[in-house]
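Researcher: We're teaching a course module on how sequence relates to structure. For the next exercise, students receive a sequence and then see the predicted structure as tokens, so they can try to spot secondary structure elements on their own. Here is the exercise chain.
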Amino acid sequence: MNAPERPAHRHRDELAARRREVSAGHADWDGARFDDPDRLDLTRRAGHVAFGRGIHHCLGALPARLEGQVALGKLVTRFPDLRLDAAPDELTRRFSLLMRGLETLPVRLG
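Model: And here is the predicted structure for the students to work with:
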């Protein structure tokens, strides 16, 4: 005689069947919402999710954004002729569930 199925297992199986994966790496990369989602557009107003939302908002978000602004500002001020040193189709993307970006970004300083 088999033991009766426990309701917790049935519930777990139903949830697994309906499960959807969510990846922050795919946020703001929606072809239905953006004309050119693969293009880096620093002016795009898209609703950034990397630092979370609401009560889950990262406490380090403000200093991290400020650090990025200062670092990039100093970089382009110090090297005004900064240019990409590879053809865009030669760049290799890093594939990860947590991070989206390039393996390397070769640049020429001037």
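Model: If you want an answer key for the exercise: The first strand starts at residue 83 and ends at 84. Residues 46-78 form one domain.
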